[in-house]
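Field reference: sequence -> structure
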Amino acid sequence: MERKVALVTGAGRGIGRGIAFAFARSGYDVCVNYNQSADMAAEVVREIRELGVDAEAIQGDISKLDGIAGLYDRFRERFGRLDVLVNNSGITRMKPFLETTPELFDEVFNTDMKGLYFCSQHAARFMVELGTKGVIINISSNHAEGCWANSTVYAAAKAGVNKLTKNMALDLAPHGIRVVGIAPGYTHNGWSDGSERVNRIIESISSRIPMGRFCTPAEVGEAAVFLSSASAGYMTGTTMYMDGGALLPVWAEKGSN
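Structure field:
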Protein backbone atom coordinates (compact mmCIF):
# COMPACT_ATOMS: atom_id res chain seq x y z
CA MET A 1 0.00 0.00 0.00
CA GLU A 2 1.39 3.39 -1.00
CA ARG A 3 2.33 5.57 1.95
CA LYS A 4 0.58 8.86 2.51
CA VAL A 5 2.55 12.08 1.99
CA ALA A 6 2.64 15.18 4.18
CA LEU A 7 4.06 18.53 3.10
CA VAL A 8 5.14 20.71 6.03
CA THR A 9 6.18 24.27 5.31
CA GLY A 10 8.94 25.79 7.42
CA ALA A 11 9.94 22.32 8.64
CA GLY A 12 13.66 22.85 9.10
CA ARG A 13 13.30 23.94 12.72
CA GLY A 14 10.95 24.74 15.58
CA ILE A 15 7.31 23.69 15.41
CA GLY A 16 7.62 22.64 11.77
CA ARG A 17 10.40 20.22 12.67
CA GLY A 18 8.27 18.70 15.42
CA ILE A 19 5.36 18.31 13.01
CA ALA A 20 7.54 16.68 10.34
CA PHE A 21 8.85 14.09 12.80
CA ALA A 22 5.36 13.35 14.12
CA PHE A 23 4.09 12.52 10.63
CA ALA A 24 7.18 10.44 9.89
CA ARG A 25 6.67 8.42 13.08
CA SER A 26 3.09 7.84 11.97
CA GLY A 27 4.26 6.33 8.68
CA TYR A 28 3.98 9.30 6.32
CA ASP A 29 6.55 10.24 3.73
CA VAL A 30 7.42 13.89 4.42
CA CYS A 31 8.36 16.86 2.30
CA VAL A 32 10.44 19.21 4.45
CA ASN A 33 9.97 22.68 3.04
CA TYR A 34 12.45 25.38 4.02
CA ASN A 35 13.48 28.81 2.86
CA GLN A 36 16.94 29.61 4.29
CA SER A 37 17.63 26.80 6.78
CA ALA A 38 19.04 24.31 4.25
CA ASP A 39 21.44 22.60 6.65
CA MET A 40 18.78 22.13 9.33
CA ALA A 41 16.28 20.83 6.78
CA ALA A 42 18.84 18.34 5.49
CA GLU A 43 19.37 17.08 9.04
CA VAL A 44 15.61 16.67 9.52
CA VAL A 45 15.46 14.64 6.31
CA ARG A 46 18.37 12.46 7.41
CA GLU A 47 16.74 11.68 10.75
CA ILE A 48 13.34 11.03 9.19
CA ARG A 49 14.82 8.55 6.71
CA GLU A 50 16.31 6.67 9.64
CA LEU A 51 12.73 6.05 10.76
CA GLY A 52 12.15 4.01 7.60
CA VAL A 53 10.07 6.46 5.57
CA ASP A 54 10.93 8.71 2.65
CA ALA A 55 11.72 12.41 3.00
CA GLU A 56 13.02 15.24 0.88
CA ALA A 57 13.95 18.85 1.61
CA ILE A 58 12.57 21.28 -0.97
CA GLN A 59 13.36 24.99 -0.86
CA GLY A 60 10.58 27.49 -1.42
CA ASP A 61 10.00 31.02 -0.21
CA ILE A 62 6.36 31.00 0.90
CA SER A 63 6.21 34.80 0.92
CA LYS A 64 6.52 34.88 -2.89
CA LEU A 65 4.05 33.45 -5.38
CA ASP A 66 6.79 32.15 -7.67
CA GLY A 67 8.44 30.53 -4.65
CA ILE A 68 5.21 28.68 -3.88
CA ALA A 69 4.75 27.63 -7.51
CA GLY A 70 8.33 26.34 -7.69
CA LEU A 71 7.89 24.40 -4.46
CA TYR A 72 4.80 22.63 -5.77
CA ASP A 73 6.37 21.89 -9.15
CA ARG A 74 9.27 20.13 -7.46
CA PHE A 75 7.00 18.51 -4.88
CA ARG A 76 4.66 16.99 -7.49
CA GLU A 77 7.61 15.61 -9.45
CA ARG A 78 9.25 14.12 -6.35
CA PHE A 79 6.26 12.69 -4.47
CA GLY A 80 3.37 12.44 -6.93
CA ARG A 81 0.65 12.68 -4.31
CA LEU A 82 -0.39 14.87 -1.37
CA ASP A 83 -2.52 13.82 1.57
CA VAL A 84 -1.75 16.49 4.18
CA LEU A 85 -0.52 20.05 3.91
CA VAL A 86 0.61 21.74 7.13
CA ASN A 87 0.91 25.50 6.69
CA ASN A 88 3.48 26.10 9.40
CA SER A 89 5.68 28.81 7.87
CA GLY A 90 5.20 32.11 9.62
CA ILE A 91 6.94 35.30 10.63
CA THR A 92 6.60 36.91 14.05
CA ARG A 93 7.36 40.62 14.19
CA MET A 94 6.51 42.81 17.17
CA LYS A 95 6.34 46.60 16.93
CA PRO A 96 4.28 49.32 18.62
CA PHE A 97 1.30 50.33 16.49
CA LEU A 98 2.56 53.91 16.10
CA GLU A 99 5.93 52.66 14.82
CA THR A 100 4.76 49.93 12.46
CA THR A 101 5.87 50.42 8.86
CA PRO A 102 4.24 49.22 5.64
CA GLU A 103 7.34 47.09 5.08
CA LEU A 104 6.85 45.23 8.37
CA PHE A 105 3.14 44.79 7.62
CA ASP A 106 3.87 43.30 4.20
CA GLU A 107 6.62 41.07 5.54
CA VAL A 108 4.25 39.41 8.01
CA PHE A 109 1.16 39.22 5.81
CA ASN A 110 3.05 37.98 2.75
CA THR A 111 3.99 34.82 4.63
CA ASP A 112 1.43 34.40 7.40
CA MET A 113 -1.64 35.14 5.27
CA LYS A 114 -0.97 35.47 1.54
CA GLY A 115 1.60 32.66 1.49
CA LEU A 116 -0.64 30.36 3.50
CA TYR A 117 -3.60 31.16 1.23
CA PHE A 118 -1.87 30.30 -2.02
CA CYS A 119 0.01 27.31 -0.59
CA SER A 120 -3.41 25.96 0.34
CA GLN A 121 -4.80 26.71 -3.10
CA HIS A 122 -1.99 24.78 -4.80
CA ALA A 123 -2.46 21.87 -2.40
CA ALA A 124 -6.24 21.77 -2.77
CA ARG A 125 -6.03 21.86 -6.57
CA PHE A 126 -3.58 18.96 -6.50
CA MET A 127 -5.81 16.98 -4.13
CA VAL A 128 -8.89 17.61 -6.29
CA GLU A 129 -6.95 16.62 -9.43
CA LEU A 130 -6.01 13.28 -7.83
CA GLY A 131 -9.34 12.75 -6.07
CA THR A 132 -7.61 12.78 -2.68
CA LYS A 133 -9.73 13.31 0.43
CA GLY A 134 -6.95 15.30 2.03
CA VAL A 135 -6.42 17.57 5.01
CA ILE A 136 -5.04 21.10 5.23
CA ILE A 137 -3.81 22.22 8.65
CA ASN A 138 -3.15 25.88 9.34
CA ILE A 139 -0.83 26.77 12.21
CA SER A 140 -2.27 29.85 13.87
CA SER A 141 -1.55 31.32 17.33
CA ASN A 142 -3.39 32.23 20.51
CA HIS A 143 -2.59 35.83 19.49
CA ALA A 144 -5.66 35.49 17.28
CA GLU A 145 -7.77 35.73 20.44
CA GLY A 146 -5.56 37.17 23.16
CA CYS A 147 -4.07 40.67 23.21
CA TRP A 148 -0.37 41.26 23.79
CA ALA A 149 1.37 44.58 23.34
CA ASN A 150 3.03 45.45 20.02
CA SER A 151 1.24 42.61 18.20
CA THR A 152 -1.23 44.44 15.95
CA VAL A 153 0.14 43.02 12.68
CA TYR A 154 0.96 39.48 13.83
CA ALA A 155 -2.29 39.08 15.76
CA ALA A 156 -4.37 40.37 12.86
CA ALA A 157 -2.68 37.93 10.49
CA LYS A 158 -3.37 34.99 12.80
CA ALA A 159 -6.98 36.06 13.35
CA GLY A 160 -7.26 36.08 9.58
CA VAL A 161 -5.85 32.55 9.46
CA ASN A 162 -8.59 31.36 11.81
CA LYS A 163 -11.31 32.91 9.66
CA LEU A 164 -9.71 31.65 6.47
CA THR A 165 -9.73 28.15 7.96
CA LYS A 166 -13.51 28.35 8.29
CA ASN A 167 -14.16 29.65 4.78
CA MET A 168 -11.68 27.27 3.16
CA ALA A 169 -13.39 24.39 4.95
CA LEU A 170 -16.75 25.45 3.57
CA ASP A 171 -15.50 25.75 -0.01
CA LEU A 172 -13.50 22.50 0.06
CA ALA A 173 -15.98 20.25 1.88
CA PRO A 174 -17.72 19.23 -1.38
CA HIS A 175 -14.35 17.83 -2.50
CA GLY A 176 -13.89 15.82 0.69
CA ILE A 177 -11.02 18.02 1.85
CA ARG A 178 -10.98 19.01 5.51
CA VAL A 179 -9.39 22.24 6.77
CA VAL A 180 -8.49 22.65 10.44
CA GLY A 181 -6.22 24.86 12.53
CA ILE A 182 -3.92 24.60 15.52
CA ALA A 183 -3.25 27.70 17.62
CA PRO A 184 -0.28 27.16 19.94
CA GLY A 185 0.68 29.54 22.71
CA TYR A 186 4.21 29.85 24.08
CA THR A 187 6.21 26.99 22.59
CA HIS A 188 9.78 25.80 23.07
CA ASN A 189 10.85 26.85 19.60
CA GLY A 190 14.61 26.77 19.95
CA TRP A 191 14.91 30.45 20.88
CA SER A 192 16.27 29.63 24.32
CA ASP A 193 20.04 29.88 24.45
CA GLY A 194 20.20 28.16 27.83
CA SER A 195 21.42 31.30 29.57
CA GLU A 196 20.28 32.15 33.06
CA ARG A 197 18.59 35.32 31.79
CA VAL A 198 16.50 33.48 29.22
CA ASN A 199 15.68 30.71 31.66
CA ARG A 200 14.36 33.32 34.10
CA ILE A 201 12.16 34.78 31.34
CA ILE A 202 10.76 31.33 30.54
CA GLU A 203 10.11 30.64 34.21
CA SER A 204 8.37 34.00 34.62
CA ILE A 205 6.12 33.40 31.61
CA SER A 206 5.42 29.81 32.64
CA SER A 207 4.31 30.97 36.07
CA ARG A 208 1.48 32.91 34.40
CA ILE A 209 0.27 29.95 32.34
CA PRO A 210 -2.30 27.82 34.20
CA MET A 211 -0.57 24.57 33.19
CA GLY A 212 2.77 26.03 34.28
CA ARG A 213 4.88 25.31 31.21
CA PHE A 214 5.45 25.94 27.52
CA CYS A 215 4.11 23.71 24.75
CA THR A 216 6.57 21.58 22.77
CA PRO A 217 6.90 21.18 18.99
CA ALA A 218 6.34 17.44 19.45
CA GLU A 219 2.98 18.09 21.08
CA VAL A 220 1.90 20.30 18.18
CA GLY A 221 3.04 17.56 15.81
CA GLU A 222 0.99 14.92 17.62
CA ALA A 223 -2.06 17.20 17.43
CA ALA A 224 -1.53 17.64 13.68
CA VAL A 225 -1.35 13.88 13.17
CA PHE A 226 -4.56 13.43 15.14
CA LEU A 227 -6.36 16.10 13.10
CA SER A 228 -5.24 14.32 9.93
CA SER A 229 -6.51 10.95 11.10
CA ALA A 230 -9.84 9.18 10.69
CA SER A 231 -10.47 9.84 14.39
CA ALA A 232 -10.90 13.52 13.47
CA GLY A 233 -12.72 12.75 10.24
CA TYR A 234 -15.78 14.84 11.13
CA MET A 235 -13.77 17.90 12.16
CA THR A 236 -13.45 20.76 9.70
CA GLY A 237 -13.44 24.55 9.89
CA THR A 238 -12.33 24.61 13.52
CA THR A 239 -9.12 25.74 15.22
CA MET A 240 -7.78 23.86 18.22
CA TYR A 241 -6.00 25.95 20.86
CA MET A 242 -2.89 24.57 22.55
CA ASP A 243 -1.75 27.20 25.04
CA GLY A 244 -1.97 25.54 28.43
CA GLY A 245 -4.92 27.75 29.35
CA ALA A 246 -3.05 31.02 28.76
CA LEU A 247 -6.18 32.62 27.32
CA LEU A 248 -8.37 31.78 30.31
CA PRO A 249 -9.54 35.14 31.69
CA VAL A 250 -9.34 34.30 35.37
CA TRP A 251 -7.46 31.61 37.20
CA ALA A 252 -6.48 31.11 40.82
CA GLU A 253 -2.95 31.57 42.04
CA LYS A 254 -1.44 28.43 43.50
CA GLY A 255 -2.49 27.99 47.07
CA SER A 256 -5.42 30.38 46.86
CA ASN A 257 -9.08 29.50 47.34
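Note: The CA atoms of residues 100 and 229 lie 41 Å apart.
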